[in-house]
Design a protein that fits this description.
The chain has 8 helices and 6 strands; from the N terminus they run βαβββββααααααα. The strands form 2 sheets. A 4-stranded mixed β-sheet has the order 1-6-5-2, with helices on one face. A two-stranded antiparallel sheet has the order 3-4. Helix 2 packs across helix 4. It starts with 7 loop residues before the first strand and ends with a helix. It binds zinc ion. Zinc ion (ZN) binds next to loops.
Length: 199
């Protein structure tokens, strides 16, 4: 049996994913072969800005290496139960000076959960800054230097914003934190080296 290959981050619009999958437009991350439909992954509940949403991620199989992939929508981050937009709001608010409890109350998320996001973002700030600075430069070769914003987390957030702006310039408007999810292959807050390898 072929091994289960890494996740692949795709758009959240299921109909669009279906079109891309059936049309052979999605590529395998392991061998660059073409992916075809292969059932669905496990259902999970995602806490979103507008309330809970049940996700049933599509699975795909590569026609080349026969590896299977779970197509993870870009509204999520790997191993996080909350929509990336919610996590992004918390990070932005914290960098702007708002405290953890206040953010948690406003977003309706447990304070410990918010603290966990912020702690992880801070611990990975330099890795995140470097990754998104590379993304920004790759998307927009005309882009000047990303200027220091005053602290590790602020610099990381500035690089994230610069990369998202460069994406929008190149591909058109889209929700910032979904772009961030894509650019980090879902691994923004993962405790792995995935950021370093997915530029
Ligand atoms: Zn393959």
């Amino acid at each position: 049996m072929p091994e289960v290959a890494p996740m692949l981050i795709v758009g959240a619009e299921q109909a669009q994913v279906e079109v891309e999958l059936l049309g052979g437009l999605l590529g395998c991350r392991s061998c660059r072969g073409v992916l075809g439909p292969w059932g669905h992954g496990r259902e999970r509940v995602l806490r979103c800005v507008e309330g809970d949403r049940v996700l049933r991620p599509r699975r795909a199989r590569c026609r080349g290496c026969l590896g299977t992939h779970v197509l993870v929508p870009d509204v999520v981050l790997l191993r996080r139960q909350d929509e990336v937009a919610v996590i992004g709001q918390a990070i932005e608010a914290n960098v702007a000076g708002e405290g953890c409890r206040s953010i948690a109350g406003r977003l309706g998320v447990p304070a410990d959960t918010v603290r966990g996001w912020l702690r992880r973002f801070a611990a990975r700030a330099e890795l995140i800054r470097a990754h998104f600075t590379r993304c920004a430069a790759a998307l927009d070769p005309m882009l000047g230097a990303v200027l220091p914003a005053g602290s590790g987390v602020a610099d990381a957030l500035e690089a994230v914003a610069a990369a998202a702006r460069a994406w929008v310039l190149r591909f058109g408007p889209g929700p910032v934190w979904r772009i961030v999810s894509r650019l980090s292959a879902g691994g923004l807050l993962c405790n792995t080296s995935s950021l370093a390898t997915t530029a």
